[in-house]
Amino acid sequence: MLEIAEFINPTPSPLWKLAKQAGVDLAVAGLPFDTLQAGERVSSLSALQRMKDRYAEGGFKIEVIESRPPLNLAKRGLEGRDAEIDVVCELLTNMGKLGIPVWCYEWMTDFNWVRTNMATPSRGGSVVTSFNANDVPDSITSNPPISEAELWTNLEYFLRKVLPVAEKANVKLSMHPDDPPITPIKGVSRIMRTIDNYHRLIDMLPSDHNTITMCQGNFTLMTDDLPREIRRFGKKISFVHFRDVKGVPTAFEETWHDAGKTDMLACMKAYKDIGFDGVLRPDHVPTVEGDSNEHAGYSSFGRLYAIGYIRGLRQAVYAN
Ligand SMILES: [Mn+2]
Question: Is 257 a catalytic residue?
């Protein structure tokens, strides 16, 4: 059955208690960069075991690791990529040993999610993040352009090495979409940005372990009927980011969970219909009065509202 989880940084913080108080027992984890000992890799069994133990002390079970070791050489197909891929293989093998079933990765090269305003006014004076393609600074990358064809080639090279390891470890690879889902950005192409491209990913190497992260904030910018697409992807969905936006891919802002373009109740019903049995997390939230916008999208109080809203939807749908 679908369960609610939260992204909880590996370093203990007040959020750990807030999440427990909100009834969240399942963690979407990072990687143990903060406790590495000399000569230890983030993918090593000892470092991951220590991280797992610390989450357990806080009352959390890790369901997903949503953090990546460096992968830009692999994404760009440059010398040194095999060493990066070896680290991913070690990570997956050790996740399997520790019973962590999903690894959320992405194929955005040079830079990750992009916003052009981190404090856009929203309901009642809360603030959200927003994006306008006209406002992206040239300084976002100093690397040469890369084509969509190159990204596909490099992704296939990566998956042919990594997917067999994931299968053996019984860890699902779960591809997060490009955020925002547009191409190119300052010459840097992006491929995980349409429904069709996601089907191409799935069909490229058919496997129960070649799966996707349904980040609703991005997928809802790719379609006018997100619940339909959730049903079409079905068992290929291994992880959900439950959030919303309003606007179009080139100009949008994030919204409160109850105020975006998407029928969130219909999405929840779709997850029930496909028998989704992984975890869902709120993803980005507004920053509200009295809270810090230092980590825009990840403020604490906004998350409490989101968790409560999602729990209500879940109870309404799964009660029937
Ligand atoms: Mn997301």
Answer: no
Q: Give 88's contacts (C-beta < 8 A, 6+ positions apart).
A: 43, 68, 69, 71, 162, 165
Is 215 annotated in the active site? Answer: yes
- Alpha helices, H only, the chain: 14-21, 45-57, 72-76, 81-98, 148-169, 195-204, 216-219, 226-233, 264-273, 300-318
Q: 286 pLDDT band (50/70/90 cuts)?
A: very high
**How far away, in angstroms, is 243 Cα from ligand 1 center?**
8
* Catalytic, out of 55, 176, 179, 198: 176
- pLDDT tens-place string over residues 230-255: 999 999 999 999 999 999 999 999 99
Rounded Cα distance between 272 and 268, Å, is: 6
Q: What is the pLDDT of residue 222?
A: 98
Does 178 qualify as catalytic in the annotation? no
Out of 215, 257, 267, 271, the active site residue is 215
Question: What domains can be seen in the chain, in order of their start residue?
Answer: 3-318 (3.20.20.150)
Q: What is the per-residue pLDDT across 178-229, written as a single tens digit (0 to 9) for each?
A: 999 999 999 999 999 999 999 999 999 999 999 999 999 999 999 999 999 9
Question: 70: cis peptide before it, omega within 30°?
Answer: no
